[in-house]
Description:
The protein is an alpha+beta fold. Helix content is 42%, strand content 14%. The longest helix is centred in the C-terminal third of the chain and has 18 residues, at 207-224. The radius of gyration is 25 Å and the shape is elongated.
Amino acid sequence: MATLRTISYGYEIKNGVVAVQPEEASIVAEIFSLYVAGKTLQNISDTLVQRSIPFYMGEVRWNKNSVKRIIDNAKYIGDETYPRIIAEDVFREAHKMKDCKGGAATPLSPILEYFKDICVCGNCGTRYKRINTWGSREKWMCADGCKTLLFVTDELLETAVWKTINKVIQNPNLLDVTPRSQYIPSKGVVREENEMLRLLEQPKISFTAAAKSILNCAALRFECCEFDRGEVSQALKDEFADMTPMDTFDLQFMKRYIRRIKVCPNGKLTVVFYNRAEITAIGGTDVGSNITETSHEN
């Protein structure tokens, strides 16, 4: 289990008194310098993580909140206990910048917010997260760290999904699927089953946690069960046949018809519709990817 720092970053205890820790102090100075230069808390955090700068006991645990705590920490200008690391004018300038920024992040569009709910890794099934800055632009990536040949940006996601929707509007038959003939547990089911077993094997079982895990497992298993998808597919095809190509995104449309966006390690990005029809958007041929008895949705 990770331990917590008992002294502010940049300091250490020597001979019973607080002293400057040189390596950490240089990072504190750099954080203030970057912030005064206009970098955001997330910019600075991402930079430190990319450089594998340890936060405590060798662990790289930087995020925008840990950077903010350093910017807010008046100990760095020195007092009767803590030696000075940052000049007072630098500290004041950083807080003037903070007041100007107001601490408010630029809000994402409703479509991008929805993408955060439905974009998953095609390898492990984990949600994709959006990193606000990665170099000079944003990046979407697997929260569990799976690698992909794609550098996924907002523009790539929006363009791929928009083109796929219009492709299906022009050819609704892409929504045809081949029903699976057997139950095939997804990786999500396997993970939840293992978690459920772990909880049930505890000496003192938490009823709330165990009940939640059992219900989650049942819901995931239900998702993998086969039903007659013919009527659902035909209904979707009929609705798409009456549509005209879209010029802009419609959030209600997305919620009604799109189930998942999957990004696979080989660079294939796939849009999964609510009848489970999988349409390749990037990284393969532009045809429907019918579900067979050997494939499953993560």
